């Protein structure tokens, strides 16, 4: 997308962290913005911020992106207000620490719905709108380096991020096959100092059960402490919004920001994979280019 002015951006997870940075970038580019988040009061604060930075218009919508009916309401509200969606940023997400064996099912469902199903919910509604608009559009899905490489100790988070990367790659092929003028991207950062270690604050009521001893266990406490450590020692947030918007400007697919993972990436992107997957060829180029 070269020309942002007056175009419509739908940004989820906009109250804190990357999402708030994306709102600021969209505002500076004089876009019309629909900012979505589960935390309503914090979300409201992006309105004066965006106005001050030059947004053509901004609306906020409080919604849980893990519930399909709520995403339907979001899309309907954006279409009613702006009549178009040019940039979809599936960014809302949670970090639910824990291993793949002991994590309560409700926590699996919470993280899968928030980090993965939400991408499906929005893309299946917004892509037909974009195709009908018949002008260049972009989708940028916030995934993670955890969607490309694997470490031990955070199976739920890594699984949802792998699923989200795979979804974006596959839908990207489908869009190309259709000849749709939609550029897909996956933002895959490493650790960054956001509010992500406070994900428990975003836990919806339907996933709460204080009677479950798991939440009093040492394992749960250790998981929370480890999430806090990796986020607090991550890179500063400043500059990430601009990096992602530059990638949108260039219609770039992989947006990689942490060169310290290049070694892992190179191990996982051998020649055989490169031949079988053209997106991986781009990924390798991106690594070589230090992006
Ligand atoms: N910070 C990191 O180190 C890091 C690294 C890689 C990927 N990410 C990803 O970046 C994205 C943004 O996270 P962040 O780091 O800015 O964290 P953050 O906690 O600062 O922001 C996440 C936002 O998503 C919102 N949210 C959570 N659940 C929601 C729901 N069900 N419906 C609507 N909104 C909801 C939160 O209220 C919050 O505003 C996430 O997908 C996260 O997984 C973060």
Counting structural domains, the number is: 1
The second-level CATH architecture is: 3-Layer(aba) Sandwich
**What's the count of strands?**
7
Provide the β-strand percentage band: 5-15%
CATH topology: Rossmann fold
* Overall helicity: 40-55%
Which series of helices and strands comes N to C? EHEHHEHEHEHEHHEHHH
Mean pLDDT: 92
Distance between the termini: 19 Å
Largest sheet: 7 strands, parallel
Structural class: alpha/beta
CATH superfamily: NAD(P)-binding Rossmann-like Domain
Please compute the radius of gyration using only Cα atoms.
18 Å
Q: What's the tally of helices? A: 11
Could you say which small molecules are bound to this protein? nicotinamide-adenine-dinucleotide
Unreliable runs, pLDDT <50, ≥5 residues?
Answer: 271-276
Biggest sheet: strand arrangement = 3-2-1-4-5-6-7
- Just give the CATH class: Alpha Beta
- Bulk shape: globular
Question: Can you walk me through this structure?
Answer:
The protein has a single domain (8-252), classed as 3-Layer(aba) Sandwich (Rossmann fold). The chain is 49% helix and 13% strand. It is built from eleven helices and seven strands. Strands 3-2-1-4-5-6-7 form a seven-stranded parallel sheet, sandwiched between helices. Helix 1 packs across helix 8 (240-249), helix 4 packs parallel to helix 5 (105-133) and helix 5 packs parallel to helix 6 (155-178). Bound molecules: nicotinamide-adenine-dinucleotide. Nicotinamide-adenine-dinucleotide binds at residues 12-13, 15-19, 37-39, 64-66, 91-94, 114-115, 142, 144, 189, 191-192, 194-196, 202, 231, 234.
């Amino acid at each position: 997308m070269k020309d942002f002015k007056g175009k419509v951006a739908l940004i989820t997870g906009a109250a804190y962290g990357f999402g708030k940075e994306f709102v600021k970038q969209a505002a500076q580019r004089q876009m019309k913005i629909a900012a979505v988040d589960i935390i309503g009061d914090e979300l409201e604060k992006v309105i004066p911020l965006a106005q001050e930075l030059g947004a053509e218009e901004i609306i906020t919508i409080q919604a849980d992106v893990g519930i399909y009916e709520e995403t339907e309401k979001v899309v309907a509200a954006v279409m009613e207000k702006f009549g178009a969606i040019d940039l979809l940023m599936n960014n809302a997400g949670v970090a639910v620490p824990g291993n793949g064996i002991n994590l309560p099912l409700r926590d699996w469902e919470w993280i899968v719905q928030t980090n993965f199903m939400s991408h499906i919910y929005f893309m299946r509604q917004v892509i037909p709108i974009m195709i009908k608009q018949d002008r260049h559009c972009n989708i940028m899905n916030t995934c993670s380096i955890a969607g490309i490489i694997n470490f031990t100790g955070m199976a739920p988070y890594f699984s949802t991020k792998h699923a989200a990367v795979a979804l974006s790659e596959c839908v990207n092929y489908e869009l190309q096959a259709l000849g749709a003028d939609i550029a897909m991207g996956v933002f895959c950062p490493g650790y960054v100092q956001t509010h992500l270690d406070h994900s428990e604050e975003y836990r919806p009521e339907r996933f709460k059960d204080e009677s479950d001893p798991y939440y009093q266990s040492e394992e749960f406490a250790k998981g929370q402490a480890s999430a806090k450590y990796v986020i607090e020692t991550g890179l500063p947030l400043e500059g990430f919004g601009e990096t992602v918007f530059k990638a949108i400007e260039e219609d770039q697919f992989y947006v990689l920001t942490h060169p310290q993972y290049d070694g892992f990436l190179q191990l996982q992107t051998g020649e055989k994979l490169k031949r079988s997957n053209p997106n991986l060829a781009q990924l390798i180029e991106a690594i070589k280019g230090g992006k």
